[in-house]
């Protein structure tokens, strides 16, 4: 469905990443991990066709993404940005309804079928009762779910999520993760491919995802979470000692050492972005 | 059950009722405004004159003096509010007014140049229109040459720059103008007024405004999506650049047409969309007609006050500022519900 090869990404005067390759099919969960500034967001923008690649090609549904019109792209791949506050107080249902835009003509308005699809997407995520609420006044977790519902209403085989759990509290993080896991399962016609970025390697274990570990604009490991997220790889990428342990229930967790032997090596990127 | 009602509520019926109610209010206001003036008319006399069965003097007053003025006030108010609502959605900022891209400054320069060259009225209006369109044209052109990731911010900043340049040129012409004859005309024009309006003046402006409203009405759903920002709108399937260009062109056509007619009338395009948004919400499909009707009614009231409250005409721009500024402060102080 989505395929990228020998991809070089970045801006005219600043290359951000090179030698990137990935492919995603319906039913896959691909988890992008890497420190701040490693190029995750730039990669997403390139995959969505929002930023032209400097070299290489992104193929979406068999054709290069740069050769497709925005509406074609939006019928194949949906984007869930980090929860944001819009300048105007749209109702949550209206925000979800915007996911239907790519299915409407330029001058058309969403009709009853679109409203039903939007409401169904909200129900599916268990937020049907938020439909009439003012989106700008919802909590961060609720907004994130509304944006995921919008991606569902967009009805695409692929969904890209930019740190979907970044602004959420402990409970909401688990809830959103559970919804994401469910989207990739289910009947084959409803199964979606999901690419998400996260700062928490434990989430990749919890989702049983394929992991792409990025470091300084390159992919340094690609494969099942248990193969990629080793103590050695994580320690290299994040610059701190990390151990990976198995809990009593059999799930793996990553534990950063809070008492490093050497001086802490927080990179300057991490500081500026934080 | 409860969910079904939400979906139904978002349907067109209550929106239509509301729009119809507003339209009725505006019609009543317009009828009232035709009656009011130095030569007072009773409702019966007004109705007879409108139907062409009144006394000849009443008919002259109604058809030659009051109706052109009332029509112009409705047109200018509706146009400025529609353009303001569009610009606010486009620039994702409720503090934006139709002058953001320099249309008023450009139109002002065009009109002042026309007055300076002692051109006839129609030529001054044409010059103002061309000035307004040209200013925004230059802004979009320069903005497209500046490579910056934030297209919207680039546009706004270049708009400020071009607006300031046009303002400087206007000031220069004011300094050079004949202080007894031209300068008062320039000052009066820059404050906005409908005092000298005739039916012939409305002729060219009305079709321009209608032409400008068509793309805004057709693109009403996409304008909602665009108010989420370029990147998100594109990810949702909107060709953001092209759509934005169309909306800017339409809103600028509308603003330049009525600014050429009435001079620089501030605050209407900034304040009215706020009021409309409080009543119908931010969805552009309902915001546009509500803004048009409320803007029309508002400017009609203000203009009627401008021509009746004192012996001499009070410039329109002064009244709209005196009303608009405190209203805006009140909006800011209220601030509870974001920008709604």
Mean pLDDT across the residues of chain B is 89
Report how far the terminal alpha carbons of chain B are from each other: 28 Å
The helix/strand order of chain A is: EEEHEEHEHHHEHEHEEHHEEH
Low-confidence stretches of chain B: 1-12
Shape of chain B: globular
Topology of chain B as a string of helices (H) and strands (E) = HHHHHHHHHHHHHHH
What pair of chains forms the biggest interface? A-B, 45 and 39 residues
The portion of residues forming beta strands of chain A comes to 25-35%
Helices of chain A, by number, come to 10
Description:
The complex is a heterodimer of chains A (274) and B (340). Chain A has helices at 40-47, 70-76, 92-97, 112-124, 140-154, 170-184, 201-207, 225-228, 231-238, 268-273, and strands spanning 2-11, 14-24, 29-33, 55-60, 63-64, 77-80, 158-161, 193-198, 210-215, 218-224, 242-246, 252-256. Chain A is an alpha/beta fold. Chain A has a 6-stranded mixed beta sheet, sandwiched between helices. A 4-stranded antiparallel beta sheet of chain A has the order 2-1-4-5, covered by helices on one side. In chain A, strands 11-12 form a two-stranded antiparallel ribbon. The longest helix of chain A has 15 residues, at 140-154. Chain B is an all-alpha fold and 340 residues long. Chain B has 15 helices and no strands. Classes of the chains: A alpha/beta (274), B mainly alpha (340).
């Amino acid at each position: 469905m989505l395929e990228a090869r020998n991809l070089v990404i970045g801006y005219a005067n600043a290359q951000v990443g090179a030698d990137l390759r990935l492919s995603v099919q319906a039913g896959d969960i691909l988890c992008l991990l890497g420190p701040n500034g490693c190029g995750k967001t730039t990669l997403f923008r390139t995959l969505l066709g929002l930023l032209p690649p400097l070299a290489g090609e992104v193929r979406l549904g068999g054709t290069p993404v740069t050769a497709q019109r925005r509406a074609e792209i939006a019928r194949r791949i949906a984007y869930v940005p980090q929860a944001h506050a819009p300048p105007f107080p749209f109702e949550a249902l209206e925000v979800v309804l915007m996911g239907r835009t790519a299915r409407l003509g330029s001058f058309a308005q969403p009709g009853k079928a679109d409203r039903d699809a939007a409401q169904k997407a909200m129900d599916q995520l268990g937020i049907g009762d938020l439909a009439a609420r003012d989106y700008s006044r919802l909590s961060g977790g609720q907004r994130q779910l509304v944006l995921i519902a919008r991606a569902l209403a967009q009805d695409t085989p692929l969904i890209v999520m930019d740190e979907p759990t970044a602004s959420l509290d402990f409970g909401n993080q688990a809830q959103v993760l559970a919804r994401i896991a469910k989207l990739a399962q289910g009947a084959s016609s409803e199964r979606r491919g999901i690419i998400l970025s996260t700062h928490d390697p434990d989430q990749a274990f919890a989702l049983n995802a394929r992991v792409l570990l990025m470091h300084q604009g390159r992919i340094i490991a690609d494969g099942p979470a248990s193969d990629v997220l080793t103590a050695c790889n994580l320690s290299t990428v994040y610059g701190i000692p990390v151990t990976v342990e198995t809990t009593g229930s059999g799930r793996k967790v990553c534990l950063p050492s809070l008492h490093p032997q050497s001086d802490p090596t927080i990179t300057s990127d991490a500081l500026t972005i934080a | 059950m409860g969910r079904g009602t939400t979906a139904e509520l978002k349907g067109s019926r209550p929106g239509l009722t509301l729009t119809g109610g507003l339209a009725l209010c505006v019609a009543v206001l317009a009828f009232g405004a035709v009656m009011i003036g130095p030569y007072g008319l009773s409702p019966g006399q007004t109705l007879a004159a409108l139907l062409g069965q009144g006394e000849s003097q009443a008919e002259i007053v109604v058809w030659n003096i009051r109706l052109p003025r009332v029509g112009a006030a409705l047109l200018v108010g509706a146009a400025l509010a529609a353009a303001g609502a569009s610009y606010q959605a486009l620039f994702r900022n409720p503090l934006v007014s139709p002058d953001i891209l320099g249309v008023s400054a450009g139109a002002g320069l065009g009109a002042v140049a026309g007055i300076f060259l002692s051109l006839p009225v129609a030529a001054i209006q044409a010059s103002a229109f061309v000035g307004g369109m040209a200013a925004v044209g230059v802004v979009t052109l320069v903005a497209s040459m500046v490579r910056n990731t934030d297209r919207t911010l680039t546009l706004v900043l270049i708009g400020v720059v071009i607006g300031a340049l046009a303002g400087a040129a206007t000031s220069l012409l004011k300094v050079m103008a004949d202080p007894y004859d031209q300068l008062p005309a320039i000052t009066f024009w820059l404050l906005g007024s409908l005092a000298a309006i005739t039916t012939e003046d409305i002729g060219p402006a009305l079709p321009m405004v209608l032409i400008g409203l068509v793309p805004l009405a057709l693109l009403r759903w996409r304008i909602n999506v665009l108010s989420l920002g370029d990147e998100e709108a594109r990810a949702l399937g909107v060709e953001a650049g092209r759509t934005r260009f169309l909306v800017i062109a339409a809103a600028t056509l509308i603003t330049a047409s009525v600014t050429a007619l009435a001079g620089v009338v501030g605050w209407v395009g900034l304040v009215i969309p706020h009021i409309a948004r409080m009543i119908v919400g931010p969805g552009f499909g309902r915001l546009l007609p509500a803004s048009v009707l409320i803007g029309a009614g508002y400017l009609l009231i203000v203009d009627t006050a401008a021509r009746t409250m004192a012996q001499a005409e009070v410039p329109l721009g002064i009244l709209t500022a005196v009303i608009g500024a405190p209203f805006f402060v009140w909006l800011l102080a209220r601030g509870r519900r974001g920008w709604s």
